[in-house]
Design brief:
With about 300 residues, the protein is an alpha/beta fold. The protein contains 13 helices and 13 strands. Bound molecules: adenosine-5'-diphosphate (ADP) and magnesium ion. It is found in: Membrane.
């Protein structure tokens, strides 16, 4: 490809809302044979809603107020944080309960949850492992509890009291995800993997709905696990494209041959990516633009092979 055709390809892509950082990126994308996708916010809309709340030793409003007090003070606006704050608001919790809770410094553990001192007690909101670790409590295997099928679950724990609640959330799958992945697989991409920090049952259900093989869908992945996975594939000589939206994906995005950030996500992901998909307002349709980017790269570099 000539510098001119790369320029033409890049500006063509930009007109469609696909920002490509440099001609090397287009060339690398044309050669990709493995695609790794994040789940939350990438294959799903990233707009989860709270569907049920269980609390122990306090009312639902009080529990949501406590969770929202922590989430609202965490610097990164994670989709789960937004959903919790919104739901607490709908119960009238933040105004009344939230203002009454004294929140100390809050710390966000990427891909795990949020912790901080609320009314003098260390409190955590996040994955079961994270809450267990922070508040030092012991509770049964969450997978053994009923009604947990395909929901993302967030636990709330307080030091000295243990688990005080469980919040279930559901996020819808982007309508275009399945057909986009299908067409990529039929046009030269050999394998598609999904890596997520969420629980395995949720990851498995989402994978089956978008046509990703069960053995290629991995839950409980930390940001480092995601990056290691990409590095291992590259070590095997594969050309890897990683698609993600969150701060938890930045390491993997930089590790990949081509990192693609879907919009609506956090700025950190866009900074680490080689390609940014802007989509429409609110990031709708952004995942479909993966195909636009691949098409432009293959047209531009078709003559090379
Ligand atoms: P994904 O890899 O699918 O994008 P994340 O890594 O962002 O998912 O999150 C993984 C898990 O970490 C969530 O399912 C949740 O249990 C927990 N978690 C992450 N951020 C938060 C938060 N702000 N509040 C509560 N829990 C969180
Ligand atoms: Mg994500």
């Amino acid at each position: 490809a000539t510098p001119t055709s790369v320029l033409v390809g890049t500006s063509l892509a930009a007109k469609r809302g696909v920002l490509i950082r440099g001609g090397d990126v287009l060339e690398a994308l044309a050669k990709v044979d493995v695609v790794v996708v994040d789940k939350t916010g990438t294959v799903t809309q990233g707009r989860p809603a709270v569907v049920s709340v269980e609390s122990e030793g306090m009312g639902e409003g009080e529990l949501m107020g406590l969770a929202a007090a922590l989430e609202a003070n965490a610097s990164a606006a994670h989709p789960i944080a937004r959903a919790i704050v919104e739901h607490a608001g709908s119960l009238g919790s933040p105004g009344e309960e939230g203002d009454r809770i004294k929140v100390g410094e809050v710390e966000y553990a990427t891909g795990k949850g949020v912790k901080g001192v609320c009314d003098g007690r260390l409190t955590a909101v996040g994955s079961p492992d994270f809450v267990r670790e922070v508040v030092g409590c012991n509770f049964g295997d969450p997978e053994q509890r009923p009604g947990t099928a395909a929901n993302t679950e967030v636990y709330v724990g307080v030091e000295g009291r243990g688990v005080v609640g469980r919040i279930s959330l559901v996020d819808s799958i982007r309508p275009e995800a399945r057909s986009v992945l299908d067409r990529l697989s039929r046009s030269g991409v050999e394998s598609v993997y999904m890596l997520s920090g969420d629980r395995q049952p949720v990851v498995s259900v989402v994978a089956s709905r978008v046509g990703i093989r069960p053995e290629n869908a991995l839950g409980g992945q930390s940001p480092f696990d995601k990056a290691d996975f990409v590095a291992r594939l590259r070590g095997e000589g594969r050309r890897v494209c990683m698609i993600g939206d969150g701060i938890n994906d930045t390491l993997a995005l930089s590790e990949a041959d081509v990192g693609i950030a879907v919009s609506g996500g956090m700025d950190a992901a866009s900074d680490a990516a080689d390609i940014v998909l802007l989509g429409e307002a609110g990031g709708a349709g952004a995942f479909a633009q993966v195909e636009d980017a691949v098409a432009v790269s293959r047209t531009t570099f078709a003559k090379i092979k």
